[in-house]
Design a protein that fits this description.
Family: Belongs to the glycosyl hydrolase 1 family.
Radius of gyration: 20 Å
Largest sheet: 8 strands, parallel, barrel
Helix content: 40-55%
Shape: globular
CATH topology: TIM Barrel
Number of helices: 13
Bound molecules: 1-deoxynojirimycin
Structural class: alpha/beta
Keywords: Glycosidase, Hydrolase
GO molecular function, one term: beta-glucosidase activity
Protein name: Glycoside hydrolase family 1 protein
CATH architecture: Alpha-Beta Barrel
CATH class: Alpha Beta
InterPro entries: GH (IPR017853), Glyco_hydro_1 (IPR001360)
């Protein structure tokens, strides 16, 4: 098997506005203010990495490390701070981000919704608001008008199933709801929003003769039985796997709100609304049957006994990425852009090996026929990890939060070497 990545393979990092930009006023910053106990290390996103001001230097640094692609999200609350009032200067900012990428030879990958909402929309019910698809489409159209001449890769919504679980089922993220009914409605609402944005991006792009590829970002987190010989453990994986790992994808293919979210009713624009598959992959999860976990559909997550764990407690198993890629390819036959893959690692002890082994798994999947177009590491720099605050470090680059000084970690150099040579070593090279 070759461990050489094709010349046109996109390679770089992924970020999201709320986690790196700083100075935001959206439903998340409101929750951080009003419910400080929700953030485990007591932090607020605040100035984050001050990337809104420092994006030129940050992109320059990544291009200097031979990255050829960069994923970022457009913050809706900046572009449309009040309903129907668009701020041209915010769109100019993102236009300059894209222009800077292009000047540096970096392919931009643009996300339209990465977990945060403007407060005016949150107050109307957020993704449950019947008008949210129309409003999201209008925002998507404005972004495509402004950036579409220079952006070919679009992501409508980041990880809808994760947002539905944490925001609507477990009540840990905005809007802090804990209801199975709200969880299902959120999935349905986001499917409608995705369909509307997919149509809007394509309509604007086609009117100008621009090319656009559109996907949502699918978080695949396959559940496996802790004890494969236990029928109960095996059974416990079935419903959550179908709902978290497949429902949204199948809805986007069939164009229907499939059960248990809907009764199979058609949604305009939803059918075949994936031009490629943006895949966020971190790990598989081991589960056992537990009557005490009705909200988790009786699947209780347990640390994998036989695998190393990240500082988030997530198992590290590169072959799980190969398996996921092969399963997704078999079922959907869509070219894949790995839109996130990374590891929480306080001291950069795990990351180099993680990168080498996961890119090795990508090479193995490609050798077996899966079309993988690129790999975006999560993330370029340590940033605000949602309810974990700043306690989890996913970055190739450390950020001193007092001075905002950036310091590349050893794993950044290794990743840069892979980006430059396109060769994935079979082990982490020993330095010195
Ligand atoms: C996926 C999310 O898209 C991103 O925002 C988050 O930081 C990473 N996972 C790590 O948890």
């Amino acid at each position: 098997m070759t461990r050489r990545l094709p010349d046109d393979f996109l390679i770089g990092c992924a970020t999201a506005a709320h986690q790196v930009e700083g100075g935001l006023d959206n439903d998340w910053s409101r929750m951080e203010r009003e419910h400080p106990q929700r953030i485990r290390d007591g932090s607020v996103s605040g100035m984050a990495c001050d990337h809104y001001a420092r994006y030129r230097a940050d992109l320059d640094q990544l291009a200097g490390m031979h990255h050829t692609a960069h994923r970022f999200s457009i913050e809706w609350s900046r572009v449309e701070p009040r309903q129907g009032i668009f701020d041209g200067s915010a769109l100019d900012h993102y236009r300059d981000v894209v222009r800077t990428c292009r000047l540096l030879g970096v392919e931009p990958v643009v996300t339209l919704h990465h977990f945060t909402l403007p407060t005016w929309l949150a107050d109307r019910g957020g993704v449950l608001d019947a008008d949210a698809p129309r409003l999201f489409a209008r925002f998507a159209a404005a972004c495509t008008e402004a950036l579409g001449d220079q952006v070919g890769w679009w992501i409508t919504i980041n990880e809808p199933a994760v947002l539905a679980v944490f925001g609507y089922m477990y009540g840990e993220w905005p809007p802090l709801q804990r209801s199975t009914r709200a969880f299902l409605s959120a999935l349905g609402g986001m499917a409608r929003m995705h369909a509307a944005a997919y149509t809007a991006v394509h309509t604007v792009a086609a009117a100008h003769g621009w090319t656009a590829r559109v996907s949502f970002a699918h978080h695949d987190r396959p559940l496996r039985p802790l004890n494969p010989r236990s029928p109960l453990d095996r059974a416990a994986t079935v419903a959550p796997n179908a709902l978290f790992n497949r429902w949204f994808l199948r809805a986007c293919r069939s164009g229907r709100l499939l059960p248990p979210v809907g009764r199979g009713q058609a949604v305009p624009g939803l059918g075949r609304s994936l031009d490629y598959l943006a895949l966020n992959f971190y790990c598989e999860e081991r589960v056992r049957f537990s009557r005490r976990h009705p909200r988790g559909m009786f699947a209780e997550s347990v640390p994998a006994p036989d695998l190393p764990l990240s500082s988030f407690g997530w198992s590290i198993d590169p072959d799980a990425l190969r398996r996921a890629l092969e399963r997704l390819w078999k079922e959907f036959r869509l070219p894949v852009l790995i839109a996130e893959n990374g590891v929480a690692d306080e001291n950069d002890e795990l990351r180099s090996r993680f990168i080498v082994d996961h890119l090795g798994a990508v090479c193995a999947a490609m050798a077996s026929g899966v079309e993988v177009r690129g790999y975006l590491h999560w993330s370029s720099m340590d940033n605000f990890e949602w309810a974990e605050g700043y306690s989890k470090r996913f970055g190739l680059i450390a950020v001193d939060r007092a001075t905002m000084q950036r310091t590349p970690k050893p794993s950044a150099a290794l990743f840069a070497e892979i980006c430059q040579t396109r060769v994935v070593p079979s082990a982490v090279p020993v330095v010195g």
